[in-house]
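Slide 14.
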Amino acid sequence: MKALQCVELGMPDKLQINEVPDPEILPGHVLINNKAGSVNFPDVLMIQGLYQFQPELPFTPGGESSGIVEAVAEDVKTLKVGDRVFAMTGLGAFAEKIVVPETATVKIPDSMSFETAAALPMTYGTSLYALKQRADLKEGETLLVLGAAGGVGLATVELGKAMGAKVIAAASTEEKINLCKKHGADEAFIYPSGKLDRDQQKELSSKIKELTGGIGANVVYDPIGDSYSEPCIRATAWDGRYLVIGFAAGEIPKIPINLALLKGMKIVGVFWGAWVGMFPEENKKNFEELFKLHSDGKINPEVSDSFSLDDGAQAIAHLKDRKAKGKVIIKI
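Slide 15: predicted structure.
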């Protein structure tokens, strides 16, 4: 079978399409004939050796895919050959076939396309966990979303609206904020790209306070980090929740911890992958909720760009260069 492989650490141009042996079925696992894979920021980091979990070389990147079950181990109880599923693997998704634990595989509705199914697990799974279990977002509260036109950003905009929040989207271009409004954002504004100086940070805080009537945002969803984090924390409301999602802008910020004291607010880590491992049944309930929201038309993953498996390296580069609006899909 064909697979996109990282044979040496570096940029996407070092990735190779190689012929590799078909994976062998294992106890408790299923073999999936992949139809689509979704590119995520950990893929960008992993091929450079910058991710917290680093597989041995050579490896096939790709944390989530969708397809059709081709074979099941004798001890698998919940899946059968022919089932349409998505799989959350963390690794190995950008290949024609993959062997996945039964527990990491979820049946998808017949009405859901493989592209949509591949785009949903990590972004919407992360965002629902963040807003529901970590932030306890309430109807009528104000939610600020940074990087709002990206995969997790758009998922959060849609979920925030579905949960009854006022959603403020922040992104780097007019085109991106228009996309956020299309997905339900009540307000949207443009912030500068790159490292923010002190004046730009103050302007960011002032803009957030202006759009919230001086109160600040009740919940801040931040996958960007770097120089964007502190001004957003300064513009968080009393008893606000600042959600630490990731650091797409590069540097991990150093936050003056007294801000949490002065504002009576919480700085909350969101590590969805670890939570899924510890509370799989709760995660399953979250996905049932997501399927219902999708069938009701309240969420719809935005697949902005599709690439073939042969062009998989370009797909990862597209995300790395921050050209993506919504999700980037590799069709297999």
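Speaker note: The longest strand covers residues 29-39.
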